[in-house]
Amino acid sequence: AQSVTQLDSHVSVSEGTPVLLRCNYSSSYSPSLFWYVQHPNKGLQLLLKYTSAATLVKGINGFEAEFKKSETSFHLTKPSAHMSDAAEYFCVVSDPYNQGGKLIFGQGTELSVKP
Amino acid sequence: DTAVSQTPKYLVTQMGNDKSIKCEQNLGHDTMYWYKQDSKKFLKIMFSYNNKELIINETVPNRFSPKSPDKAHLNLHINSLELGDSAVYFCASSRPSYNEQFFGPGTRLTVL
User: Fold this and answer.
1) CA–CA separation, A25 vs B76, rounded Å?
2) Contacts (Cβ under 8 Å, ≥6 apart) of A91
């Protein structure tokens, strides 16, 4: 069975400092992995995705994530936080062979950015 | 030119009522989904349809009945609403065998 664990429920950084949101996954297959962002009272927006191509994935708004199979991790990083990055972030795993396309969500990490 | 749209955005109703949430996508996708986000922001899939055919039904009470009149629409009908049904419901769509899903803005359901 697939699962996702986001290691921090809340992360607080100062504007201009690096962001690290941690995610570990469990999957019997080569998974597809995603990071989605949800701003307050908004829908979910895809930040980036890993689908067995390059292990370092670049996304929108300066975010990137590295797939590390040996560590079963897919941590999200950004070199310099911006106030507009404050939001809820979800690490998501999916089985590419699952016809239903079911996404398994992590519990979410709330990112706060201090001025 | 909204990709995935949902109506209504907010829905406040009494226990025991029946209500529907509509979802439409103009992306030409074949697969559509309903997710429920609880008060702790945890998201879980409820249903998945591919070309109007039910693919996933994740042990959701049978008070919840999805209906797909065509592949661009997936509506969610809820009978006999209960307090625990209060949540944000998200619709999403994707191409088959391509897991990137595009989400609608959500419908916040409050049952009083």
Assistant:
1) 31
2) A4, A6, A21, A23, A25, A33, A34, A35, A74, A76, A105, A106, A109
pLDDT in tens, B80-94: 999 999 999 999 999
For residue B14, the distance in angstroms to the closest alpha carbon of chain A comes to 23
Q: Confirm or reject contact between B42 and chain A (CB < 8 A).
A: yes
> Is-contact A113 A86, C-beta < 8 A?
yes
Residue found by looking up tokens 């979802």 in the block:
B23
pLDDT tens digit sequence for A12-40? 999 999 999 999 998 877 788 999 999 98
**B106: three-class secondary structure by DSSP:** coil
Read off the tokens for A82. 């911006």
User: CB distance A101–B103 less than 8 Å?
Assistant: no
Report how far residue B112's alpha carbon sits from residue B78's, in angstroms, rounded to the nearest whole number.
Answer: 15
Chain A contact set for B56 (CB, 8 A): 100, 102
pLDDT at position A31? 83
